[in-house]
Design brief:
binds FE3-S4 cluster; Fumarate Reductase Iron-sulfur Protein, Chain B, domain 2; 2 domains
């Protein structure tokens, strides 16, 4: 029988309870076409080092649990094939979030920011009736916007999250635009007020990292740009109308 090829994996290790600083462990993993990085991590944990910690759940790009930094890019381990990674596969945890162990980070700050932007429909007048009908075009506009799986890859890739810990970040800001653009939502001014301060959309330096790494093509950069335009358009209207224009 033909022997399987092996690939070297270099994996970030750190246990804040016992280690003074992080280090990397290397493992040789037998692989064949179709094997994902997540499957390789499973192999390592089951056969080489049972203490390796990482997150995963659905194994098919839906739950968003296995986002990590693989050879220079934030991506989902379950969607990255070993055969497509050149050379040694170097894996690091997501940036800007505290490490719980190895590749597992504390996602609480990410979800707290998401909670802060009210990620649900605010429908306005309750007398309008229970059913709020959308046209096909109105729904089609939301198609990509609703695909976010909250993996946090955009958050980790954004340099602004690294120096401003209160910056809402690309995922939460894109979510604001998702509800702002929803024809059933009636909280436009409330939503724009939530993202107008120094930790909101104007903190975004249009770095595009979030757009590049998003596994679902949500394009946070364009969503943030739309919110900026909306806020500026409103402020110009107020200024001009004050001057009687
Ligand atoms: Fe960050 Fe994306 Fe803006 S990477 S700076 S949120 S365009």
């Amino acid at each position: 029988m033909e022997k399987k090829k092996t690939k070297q994996f270099k994996i970030f290790r750190f246990n804040p309870k016992t280690d003074k600083r992080h280090y990397f462990d290397t493992f040789d993993v037998p692989y064949e076409a179709g094997m994902t990085v997540l499957q390789a991590l499973n192999y390592i944990q089951r056969n080489l080092d049972g203490s390796l910690a990482y997150r995963s759940s659905c194994r098919e790009g839906i739950c968003g649990s296995c986002a990590m930094h693989i050879n220079g890019k934030y991506c989902l381990a379950c969607e990255t094939q070993v055969i497509h990674v050149k050379g040694t596969v170097t894996i690091r945890p997501m940036a800007h979030l505290d490490i719980i162990k190895d590749l597992v980070v504390d996602m609480n700050p990410f979800f707290e920011k998401l909670k802060a932007i009210k990620p649900y429909l605010i429908p306005g007048d309750p007398d309008e009736g229970a059913e709020r009908i959308q046209t096909q075009d109105e729904r089609a506009y939301l198609n990509t916007l609703v695909d976010c799986i909250l993996c946090g890859a955009c958050y980790a890739s954004c340099a602004v999250n690294g120096f401003d810990e209160d910056y809402l970040g690309p995922a939460a800001l894109a979510k604001v635009n998702r509800f702002f653009m929803d024809s059933r939502d009636k909280a436009d001014e409330q939503r724009l007020a939530l993202v107008s301060d120094e930790h909101g959309v104007f903190r975004c330096h249009t770095l595009f990292n979030c757009q590049v790494v998003c596994p679902k093509n949500v394009n946070p950069t364009a969503n943030i740009a739309n919110l900026k335009r909306q806020i500026i358009a409103r402020s110009l209207t107020v200024k001009f109308s004050k001057k009687g224009m």
